[in-house]
Predict the structure.
Amino acid sequence: MPRLTVLRTASGLLALSLTTLPILAQQQQEQPLPQGPPTFSEADGRRITEEVRRSLARLTNFGVFDWITFGIHGKSVILNGYASRPTLRNDAERAVRRINGVENVENNIEVLPVSNFDDRIRAAVYDRIYLQPALRRYNRNMGGIMRATRPHPNVALRAGGVTNSPPIGWHAIHIIVRNGHVQLFGFVDRESDANIAFIMANGTPGVFSVTNNLDFPTRPQS
């Protein structure tokens, strides 16, 4: 199995792993790398892992509608996940390539389709999740999409265009939308909160399906 790493930062939720790795708030879990001869020391491996995590966490265009994971195999970094904008996919690869010791980057980040329909769903799911009293604490803005896009809220965001002007700041629950299908990624404090987020997203008009990938402390990481 490829390495799975789960990390958190105060600046934003970012998944980093060969399958999925989220960045949320100083937590890490790993599985063994594929067997093979080591190409650098264990200390180098730890350094590169931390520098990849930091580089991705610093991306200013990484937001609540994106999810990036990374894995490390030898001196190669494998990027997976979803980007709502093509610039994020390219910026993530550039940031990782600059790291000393990284010789190759395999960029498997999927750029999500440009779609006003999906944008309306993003805004609607965001509101249904983050306006829920039980879930408000999971974003820094403590409110819905219009408050989150201040200081220049735009009514057009509700009708589309939220991808180009996404909410900024930390969000524990990330919302990935592709052709009307929603995936939720991130970390919450308890299973009941994950269930509430799923119910809110699943009840959003226009949503075809919801896959709940939210983790919580009582669920084993895999």
